[in-house]
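RETRY 2/3 - previous attempt timed out on the joint model. Re-submitting the same 278-residue input unchanged.
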Amino acid sequence: MNNAELEKIVLMILKIAGIIVVVFNAGVGLILLRQAITMNNVIKVGGGILFITMILIFLLVTSSILLYAIAI
Amino acid sequence: MPPMESAKRRSLIARVLPRREKRAFGAIEIYPKRLRFLTQNPGEVVYILARAHVIVNLGWAFRLAFLSVVPLVGLYFMDYLQLGIGFVTDELIALIILVYYLMLAGSFIMNLMSWYYDIYLVTSERIIHYDFNPLTSYHVAEAEIENIQDVTQSTIGFLPNIFGYGDITVRTASSKNKFYFKAVPHPVWFRDVIADLSRLIRAKEP
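RETRY 2/3 succeeded.
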């Protein structure tokens, strides 16, 4: 195996690792969104909607990064 | 079912908690506005909403601030010292940095939610503790305010003494049942108010 092939494999591994981490983050975001909605039902305090919005933005950014990771 | 608030009792409670106000950057709210909770009984009044002092967030906030600067410093030095891994493309470096900041953002939301939803309520009937653990669970504990037997306050440590927050332990009639209010601001005032409210609510109607 020459150097060019090795570099290609390393790049591929890095890219796949990146995609896995982004998917993991998306999972975390979804669980947090579910919990934020539950907590907002259990106790309504001012910041509930703020958190839901924040997590939705987080998920939006996560999906954009996922698309970017797949595209490069 | 606890007795309804009479006018006399209301006026006595108004002496303990005279008006709506926020203290310690909103960590304590007296007569909180627009607060409702799922198990609220008809006529149940929320007197106090409390959560840990804002300063308890300092640890994770500093940690995240430090971690958010690390890649910038790393990039600067890599550029300055002309270091670099030749075959790693700019797109891949951008992806790694984006993923890194994404993880930091996730951590920020989790920590903030954990603090925000760790809530103590003092109502006209009970004290309630909502304990929220991000990604895993939430616990709710409550005790009748009539059953409160004694309230202990402790302020231990450098930061609690500087910023004026501490822990309150509330013991109820059942010896097993203990309530911990962790790192609440104005602990002396808080202990006094809980003890006074408990006494007032326990007192027989004239």
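Helices of chain A lie at 3-42, 48-71. Closing ticket.
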